[in-house]
Design a protein that fits this description.
The complex is a heterotrimer of chains A (400), B (234) and C (391). With 400 residues, chain A is α+β, with helices and mostly antiparallel strands. In chain A, 51% of the residues lie in helices and 17% in strands. In chain A, helix 9 crosses helix 11. The longest helix of chain A is centred in the first third of the chain and has 38 residues. In chain B, the strands form two sheets. Chain B has a six-stranded mixed β-sheet with strand order 6-7-8-3-9-10. Chain B is globular, with a radius of gyration of 18 Å. The two termini of chain B are 27 Å apart. Chain B has six helices and ten strands, in the order βββαββαβαααβαβββ. With 234 residues, chain B is of the alpha/beta class. Helices cover 31% and strands 34% of the residues of chain C. The longest helix of chain C is centred in the first third of the chain and has 48 residues. Classes of the chains: A alpha+beta (400), B alpha/beta (234), C alpha+beta (391). Chains in contact: A-B, A-C. Chains A and C meet through helix 2, strand 5, strand 8 and helix 11 of A and helix 1, strand 3 and strand 23 of C.
Chain lengths: 400, 234, 391
């Protein structure tokens, strides 16, 4: 027995492939949408993975440091270092800022990290070019997504930083590339305002008689000096010693240091549930709509192809072709269309994903799920055409 | 007779109750192997209904049908799989060739045998035989759209014959043709009928070929009357 | 087999599509190898350097101001003026001090006059005494010859005693007048000193660095009217991260880069490392002095970067710091052998500012290690060694 479906496709392959490409692009878009969601989740995960931390110690009562602002004193880490089960603890600050360099104007998350010792949490995990920061000030490591190159001078607040290293896929939870600078510089950048604001503040302080008392010489200078010092950081990243569970180490810190501590699992759930929730819902709705549209298109195409063959189907029935053979022909065509669509869709999604501004993660499991869904949709969509084909009366081949 | 077709007192009623229409009111026909008979009648005479009953496409209301010595209908169908019956025992030739456009010529003919379960090679071999007999073997690999009208018609006839059915139903096979070609088709039909011992019933109102029939069945108001035809040589 | 044009056409479309599909699967999924660059470990000496930032300060800075509250009468110098030791820089308003001094001068004059008067009175008392003595002697003689009565003599004796007392009194007055003169002279000296203190003078040679008040301002005691520095004493007050300041000591050579002159590097030396470090910022403080002062004096408070060169260390295995990774809390590198990677723990030594790090334990010269990679590597990752990573 020959394959009727195969012969029919081969006979009008141009039409079929053309339709398959169209369907494939639609499927590609659907896969890309799913990839956007996965990319967002991955952005959050990668941020947590890249920090190299097992615990995040933040201000009590906040969901910080990513989902909410958090400020703790920069000497808290010393106490934390001394607690049981703590292998390493490092201060870290995060500041999202718009940075311009040459022609580029980029939105960047500036991370202040401890640079004096390699191997502490918070530092970039790997480099694609250049080196790690060796000087305690005015050097930076940038993610390639910023567009900066080795040797570029970047201005953050009032200091210039030389880019000495490049890294990849170091992003904030909203996909902004990261720029690592020494902690002290970052502390200054986070709380020190621009020159105009500082002058204004000095004026106001000097105008306040409580701070500017002639009977107490030196008071105003002391107050101004204290205003230009920033003893805060956003979080302390903690690495847990082998043999301890994160929760074991976190609980004493919560109890005795009156700080909030989140484990990796808790941070992940904060980021994914709170930050990404709305976007995830939106994407889910899109996926449903796209799936329905794809199903409708497949149904329409297969139905049209079938109706165009009504006469042939009548003849086939007349000469004794069984109903199930005809149904199989239609289903095979539908599945063939789905296959072409899937292949084209996967190829298209893979090639255009890097062009998108946000990170798109195409997972093989998603492709497999998509494949199964497409096949199911194709089979279901072909049912309408099959019903039409089975209703055909072979007597119609015999005219009037 | 072993091959051939016998129709006795065939009735067909459409609808029920007040709106019932009796299209066939007791048709009798008998066609032996190798015979080519005409079935002539005006439109509305029940011609198409009779053809559809003969073709096992619709179910008669009453009567008997004996095909190839086997009683296929006796007040109800005696055959379960009508599709298989049509496939193996009834050949169809239409006004238009109605070839499957996405199969090449040889597979168009061989398809019926393949549907019957024969191997592809065997089916194509038998198909080739018929194509040779009908002088279109050189077009075996062509697609139907590449053939002339006459060639397509011959392929259709080959398809009707390939499973050696005891009866072939031809529905206005010469209507679109001029007299030369029409007679050519009738000639082929007569030759094939004899060669393959097939009874052929030709439904027609084509004046060009009616004289070629030895016997003609007239159908009027749901009844048939047999008449001797001219039987002109082609 | 039906191999006709149709089938060929179909294959021409399907085959490239399938190949593309397979290509996509191999290069972008989890099956794809990670591009990395590698380097060989070399034995090298490194010259570590310490990096700190600081501000320009003057070693010797002076605040010049009054010791008593008052009004500023005049300021005679401005910022940037070079002054000599002893030069008058500003003056406070004397208020009534000058009048007081004049009054005190008058008091001195009066005291002198008082002495003269007292002396004159002493002379008068002496004369009276003389006369009283002569009279007493005469009348005593007269008494002896009974020419006068006792009471007459008693009266003259009594006059003599009065005259003696009178002289004593007059003498005492003279002393008192002398002491009064001393007193008002001291008072005058005191007022004079006070007056002197209203003159603000330069304690040493130097340059005026700030002028805080203008004439007419009310100034409290202790507030500086002008500030000056010794320009030959400029140095950088530098801060070094405690964790990266091993080996910082006085006498080391250094280079200073001023923020306003980013192209120039000034030769310098570490003058001293402070005993008191900054516990809050976790920095060690050091003073780094210019070997030769810049011709254009940098402003006090300008930011500067200081690089202190430490002596070169003996050769050891050296790797770029980009190769150092941390996996499961351990610091190490990915060793490459036969195209496979394996994590090797290392002990890190000193590094120079270019990122070359000495390895004390865990690597030898000739080992091949992963330097850059396009993604994070895990145990078992497949690698593809390339020249450079294309992002």
């Amino acid at each position: 027995m020959i394959s009727l479906a195969g012969r029919d496709i081969a006979h009008s392959w141009g039409k079929f492939v053309f339709t398959g490409v169209g369907l494939g692009l639609l499927i590609g878009v659907t896969m890309t949408m799913a990839g956007v969601y996965r990319g967002m989740v991955d952005d959050a995960k990668v941020l947590l993975d890249n920090s190299g931390a097992d615990l995040w110690v933040v201000q009590q009562g906040t969901l910080g440091p990513y989902a909410e602002a958090s400020s703790i004193y920069d000497d808290e880490y010393r106490g934390i270092l001394g607690m049981a089960g703590v292998d390493a603890a490092a201060n870290v600050t995060y500041l999202t800022s718009q940075i311009s360099q040459g022609d580029l104007d980029v939105r960047v998350m500036v991370a202040g990290i401890v640079t004096t010792v390699l191997g502490l949490p918070g530092q970039p995990r790997f480099l694609v070019k250049g080196r790690h920061i060796t000087r305690g000030h005015y050097e930076a490591v940038a993610d390639v997504k910023t567009g900066f190159n080795i040797g570029d001078e970047v201005k953050i607040r009032r200091n210039h930083y030389t880019v000495v290293g490049l890294t990849k896929r170091m992003v904030s939870s909203s996909g902004d590339p990261m720029l690592f600078i020494p902690l002290k510089d970052a502390q200054e950048a986070q709380f020190l305002k621009d020159n105009d604001a500082i002058l204004n503040q000095r004026r106001r302080t000097a105008a306040n008689p409580a701070f500017n008392n002639p009977a107490v010489p030196g008071l105003l200078d002391a107050v101004l000096a204290s205003q230009s010092v920033n003893p805060f950081v956003n979080a302390v990243l903690v690495r847990v010693k082998a043999g301890f569970t994160p929760e074991q180490v976190a609980e004493p810190i919560r109890k005795w240091k009156r700080l909030q501590v989140y484990t990796r699992a808790q941070m992940e759930s904060i980021l994914i549930e709170k930050l990404i929730k709305t976007a995830a819902k939106q994407i889910a709705m899109f996926l449903v709509i796209l799936a329905i549209v794809s199903a409708a298109i497949v149904a329409f195409i297969i139905y049209t192809l079938t109706i165009g063959k009504i006469r042939e189907i009548a003849v086939l029935k007349l000469i004794g072709t069984k109903n199930r053979t005809i149904a199989a022909m239609i289903i095979q065509q539908s599945i063939g269309l789905g296959l072409i669509g899937f292949v084209i869709g996967k190829i298209a999604a893979t090639f255009w994903a890097p062009v998108f501004p946000k990170y798109i993660l195409l997972e093989p499991s998603d492709a497999a799920t998509g494949f199964v869904l497409i096949m199911v949709i194709c089979v279901l969509a072909s049912l309408i055409a099959i019903r039409a084909a089975l209703k055909v009366d072979p007597a119609e081949a015999i005219g009037g | 007779m072993a091959r051939g077709i016998i129709i006795e007192d065939l009735h067909k009623q459409y609808g029920v109750g007040d709106t019932a229409v009796e299209a066939l009111k007791g048709v009798n026909m008998q066609v032996g192997p190798g015979e080519v008979v005409g079935l002539v009648g005006p439109s509305g005479s029940g011609k198409s209904t009779l053809l559809k009953c003969l073709g096992a496409v619709i179910e008669p209301s009453n009567g008997r049908m004996i095909l190839g010595g086997e009683s296929i209908y006796n007040q109800k169908w005696n055959i379960k799989d009508l599709g298989a019956l049509r496939r193996d025992s009834i050949g169809f030739v239409f006004q238009a060739p109605y070839l499957i456009p996405f199969l090449d010529v040889i597979d168009n003919v061989a398809l019926i045998l393949m549907l019957a379960g024969k191997s592809n090679d065997e089916s194509r071999k038998r198909a080739m035989e018929l194509l040779e007999a009908l002088d279109v073997a050189h077009r075996a690999k062509a697609m139907p759209s590449q053939l002339s009208g006459g060639e397509q018609q011959r392929v259709a006839i080959a398809r009707a014959l390939v499973s050696r059915p005891p009866v072939i139903l031809a529905d206005e096979p010469t209507a679109p043709l001029d007299s030369e070609r029409a007679l050519a088709v009738m000639k082929i039909l007569n030759e094939m009928a004899k060669q393959y011992e097939t009874a052929i019933i030709v439904v027609t109102h084509d004046e060009k070929i009616i004289p070629t029939f030895k016997r003609i069945y007239h159908i009027r108001d749901g009844k048939t009357i047999e008449e001797a035809g001219e039987g002109r040589e082609i | 087999m039906n191999v006709n044009k149709r089938t060929l056409g179909l294959l021409a479309v399907v085959v490239p599509m399938l190949l593309l599909f397979i290509y996509v699967g191999m290069t972008s999924g989890p099956l794809a190898p990670v591009p990395v660059t590698t380097a060989k470990v070399e034995n090298k000496g490194v010259s570590p350097a310490l990096f700190g930032i600081g501000i320009v300060e003057a070693r010797y800075a002076y605040s010049i101001g009054p010791i008593a509250p008052g009004h500023l009468q005049a300021v005679y110098v401005d910022v940037g003026d070079r002054v000599k030791q002893g030069q008058l820089l500003a003056e406070m308003e004397p208020v009534d001090l000058d009048e007081k001094i004049v009054s005190q001068s008058m008091a001195i004059k009066r005291a002198r006059d008082g002495i003269t008067t007292a002396k004159a009175m002493l002379k008068e008392a002496e004369a009276r005494l003389n006369f009283a003595q002569i009279q007493e002697t005469r009348y005593r003689k007269l008494l002896e010859i009974k020419s006068i009565g006792d009471e007459v003599y008693e009266a003259k004796k009594q006059e003599l005693q009065a005259a003696v007392s009178g002289k004593a009194i007059a003498k005492a007055n003279v002393n008192s007048a002398k002491k009064e003169l001393s007193r008002v002279q001291s008072d005058r000296k005191g007022l004079s000193n006070l007056r002197d203190n209203l003159r603000l003078i330069a304690p040493k040679d130097g340059v005026i660095s700030a002028r805080r008040f203008e004439a007419g301002s009310a100034v409290m005691s202790g507030q500086a009217v002008v500030e000056m520095i010794d320009p030959t004493s400029l140095w950088i007050n530098a801060r070094f991260d405690q964790q990266r300041s091993a080996g910082l000591a006085a006498g080391l050579h250094a280079k200073i880069q001023l923020r306003s002159q980013s192209q120039k590097r000034y030769a310098a030396k570490v003058q001293r490392v402070e005993i008191m470090a900054d516990a809050v910022t976790e920095e060690i403080l050091a003073k780094v002095a210019f070997n030769h002062l810049p011709s254009l004096m940098p402003p006090i408070g300008e930011l500067a970067e200081v690089t202190v060169a430490l002596p070169e260390l003996p050769a050891k295995p050296v790797i770029p710091n980009a190769a150092i990774k941390q996996v499961d809390g351990e610091v190490g590198v990915w060793l490459v052998s036969d195209g496979e990677i394996a994590f090797a723990s290392i002990t890190v030594g000193e590094n120079n500012l270019n990122g070359e790090v000495q390895i004390l334990k865990g690597l030898q010269a000739g080992d091949e290690i992963v330097v850059y990679s396009k993604h994070a590597l895990k145990q078992g990752s497949k690698i593809d060694v390339v020249e450079a990573i294309q992002p």
